[in-house]
Protein 1
Amino acid sequence: MASTIGWELYRTFLGVLKEGSLSGAARALGITQPTAGRHVAALEQALGVALFTRSQMGLMPTEAALALRGHAEAMESTAASLERVASSQGDGVRGAVRISASEVIGVEVLPPILARLRRQHPQLQIELVLSNRVQDLLKREADIAVRMVAPKQDQLLARRIGQIELGLHAHRDYLAQQGMPQTLAELAGHAVIGYDQTNAFIRSFAKTLQGFTRDSFALRADSDLAQLALLRAGAGLGICQVALARRDPALQRVLPGLFSLQLETWVTMHEDLRNSPRCRVTFDALVEGLQQHIAAAA
């Protein structure tokens, strides 16, 4: 095995894993297909293992490739973090900050906060990663994360924002046609929007609404944004942040005294970034903006 293997080989290897072909990896990375092929061949030779086999579906990763994937992704995160740090060198607040947030928070809550932040610091660059998966700040997958669970790692700097209240809501047109339920039992006669795959949220939902299971949902989607779109379209009853619903006069809360869920909200970043001007001002802006968002529902 070669003692030193260049990052560009692992970068191309990871690109092929993600895209499923040399041509797809080449397009994604901005290189030629022959170059991508040479990179994979060189990495296989250096490691002494086969990484891909050809099939009708494209290049299929071997067990060795799958075992290497996590390490290559860690290298990718570290390389991206290095680039962000390098871009921040110089006077003032400048450079790239990578923020991780859930779909709804990233689309419905953060844009005005980030727009205001960019007006104050025009040399700041924002990378917004929307995923309901918790990004690993210790591996530098993101610089700052907005989380709905309390961080457990000691190396993280965390600020508790408060609780975001979730309630049942429906479009006024839906309620005009189907009527406003007066009890939890009456929800069985309504089209309820929920999740497809069972997860921790569904389990907490089921505890609040006894007897409600996945099969009780008339419309199912694992995307929070898709559920919100269905709710706004008048497709049925669904869960929505109370603060978001209050922005839209067409959305009305259903059974407010009987159904309420609370999401603990935190802003977190690695403690090593506390003295980084770009991360510090972004962290503070997120804390202030999210506190205002929660206050809007009070």
Note: The CA atoms of residues 21 and 59 lie 6 Å apart.
Protein 2
Amino acid sequence: MENQYDMEVDVREVGGGGIAFSSVAEGDRDYFNEAWLPTTHQDPWSKAQENAAKLGYTYKGTSVGLTVPAYMDISSVSELENYRDELGGEINGIESGAAVNDQTRKILENNGLDGFSVVASSGPATWQALENAVNNEQPIVVTGWYPHWKWGSFDLKYLEGAQTGQSPVFGDPEDVFKIVDSEFTEEFPKEVVCFLKVSEVTDEEIESLMGSFRNRGDMSKREAASQWIENHSEDVNAWTKQAEECAASDGPVETLPDDATFSREQST
């Protein structure tokens, strides 16, 4: 945004999607690019959508579920009780208040799995626990989702009956949306709005982007982003070309309907 459109950009990282939705709806922030809908972030979206809109897709076709290393001799959530003692009755969740933690508790309840608790922790702490377990080939269960860098770093699998498409708790495949405040499309230059609307990532792009940040060494996040842009100029140029075509069209940039969902439309 800064290089291509000479825009001043202020990025703020927050813990938990709820804060991101409310800050956009209240006008404190303009844009959030990781709204998982219509299931995972349905609660904060329902509270924010009166003053916010779906600008476009970030990624189409997500998955969520209970995740274990491939070396564990378990394939279904119903088999978890066989690992209760080895796991210490713990399933590693993420930040307190995250939707996936509550979804996991519901999965346990629906499957009559007593004696388990979902341990809320920071994302980095959860992934460190996963890495430690994998390095020692120990059993572990974490809340997992795709896209996420862990799938490219470890050999993992979802548990049957506890993943997207196999349980009403996790629902059908979702899409990742870009959420903007209600004044966004009028407030900013059309080409900028268009760029944010069309810059949707593929599996290859999102995995390489996540890998660049995950393995950036001593580089700052800004330096890692600049390096990715340089190494993926064809992808970025494709987005800017689409943005130019969008900006040249008549009329304002249209946001998506509140209930827009690509993946579920494809499955019906």
Note: The first strand starts at residue 31 and ends at 37.
Protein 3
Amino acid sequence: MTNKISFFCAVAALFIFVSCNNNSTSTEDAATKDSATAAVNNTADWKIGVQLWTFRLFTQSEAIAKADSAGVRYIEAFLGQPFDKTSKDTFGISMSAAGRQKLKDVLKQHNIQMVAMGVTTPNGKDEWIKTFELAKEFGLSYITSEPIKTQWDLADSLAGVYGIKIAIHDHPKPNAYWHPDSVLAAVKGHNNIGSCADLGHWARNGLNLVDCLKKLEGHIYGVHLKDIVKFDKTDAADTVVGKGVIDFAPAFAELNRQNFKGMFSIEHESNWENNVPDVIETVKFYNDQVAKLKK
């Protein structure tokens, strides 16, 4: 009897030892897997572009040439910018067919793709349809907008029909969308509405960038890239990205973790008459940040 008890005790001890080792291995494997996942580089589908508001003092054709000279291949157009100095055409839903063709020719000439346009707030179904028609004609991925709350359903439905997303932009408070929670309210129940994350404006609003990005995970279609000179000050001046108060590295890392796929639109609201060098410097900063994520 004693021998039998000793035998069963030995078997039990061996089982416990093996189980503990297996659990330890599983835990270590999980930790290794988490570490590997965190280290994955997901920036292959990122684009660096410029919001043409950066060159708002110039015509759209001049602005596109400036983007080209800064080494940028993608743009976000803004509505109302005159196409050139000779025609009456401005970019928007009323732009003539001839003006649209001229714009396509200029984009092709500079090998530049228009990815988005905004910020726009269409008023009613007719304006929304014309806005989507314009976006479709130029092959846009999303429309940067601050939609009227009562038109969320309408905008979402049309976005689904056209296959073009709506990216809600955040301006400084008291703007209706200054906080990610207000954007999430619009996203709820609307599969085609998401966020255009303006990192500079979040900082102006006194918000933590990474916290904001985490709240909007899975709903970020585009990013506005800008830096400011003072945190939590709604009218803080712009400065060259990387030279202000914003710590961009954690934000880039978070977007990488989320497997963000979209465009960073440089929106530099400073040095208006001669800001191409600032845009070039921002492009370099962006490339350096992306390179660090690849290590």
Note: The longest helix spans residues 2-39.
Protein 4
Amino acid sequence: MLDDRAKLLLKALVERYIADGQPVGSRTLSRASGLELSPATIRNVMSDLETLGLIASPHTSAGRIPTARGYRLFVDTMLTAQREQMQAPSLAADQPQKVIANAAHLLSNLSQFVGVVMAPRRTSVFRHIEFLRLSERRFLVIIVSPDGDVQNRVVFTEADYTQSQLIEAANFLNANYAGMAIEQVRERLKGEVDKLRGEIGALMQTAVQASSDAMSEQDEVVISGERNLLAVSDFSNDMSHLRRAFELFEQKTQLMRLLDVSSQAAGVRIYIGGESTVVPFEELSIVSAPYEVDGQVVGTLGVIGPTRMPYDKMIQIVDITSRLVSNALSHNK
């Protein structure tokens, strides 16, 4: 347990380091904290904080910097939310894909770091389906979801089909299966294919499989502003840090796992690199929040930046953006 004096000094040290990016010495800390303490007393407290693993001393400096554990204590118990209102940006209601892309861009612009959004798990239910003949043994499947999202898929078949056959197959699917999930349609067709004319049954099975593939193909994580990290001294001074960050963005699997965890928690969450296996790199932190559609959590968004980020401002940005996305995607407005 830290006493009040130690907490105040740790808070001042973290805030000063976030602002300046330089290790904080005892003299600077004395001024920043506003405490009338002798340099010797401050050095003793800093030594205690270092023993507790809350701050560390870089080899090249007499000053100290926060550790992941120090940032965590600061974020959980000392962070003061900014009172001034941010100028509310706008996020127009549109097709889900466009809303998600715009949200990632907005997060990146407001934070000057990296914006990341996990797209909503797309429903496989279709409202309407059409087939359009493109050329011999090649046609286009057009699937419209209940929320108006449109997916297209080009299909190649062994047999050739006329446009009238394609219309017949689409009409049958729309009349009998609209409002059902593609997977259900596929299972039902297996049982009913004998009742249909052979070539139309085969056509519909091929088309439904293609529809299933089209609806499962999506950018699960949308990322914007990776180049912003080039301007962050914590990365630009060490190319290996920058390379590892970009590898994380390219793989996306780790990001998906992290954002999936975030969606299970209410409100804004902060993940600090180095404190757990969730964020694998000590140099990165993520501030995230879930967003909803009609009251149901469907995805997560956030800001990725250096551990030395202004967490109070990032919390505001992420919180506001999650509300904007929820409003833009919800139908019950």
Note: DSSP finds twelve helices and ten strands in the chain.
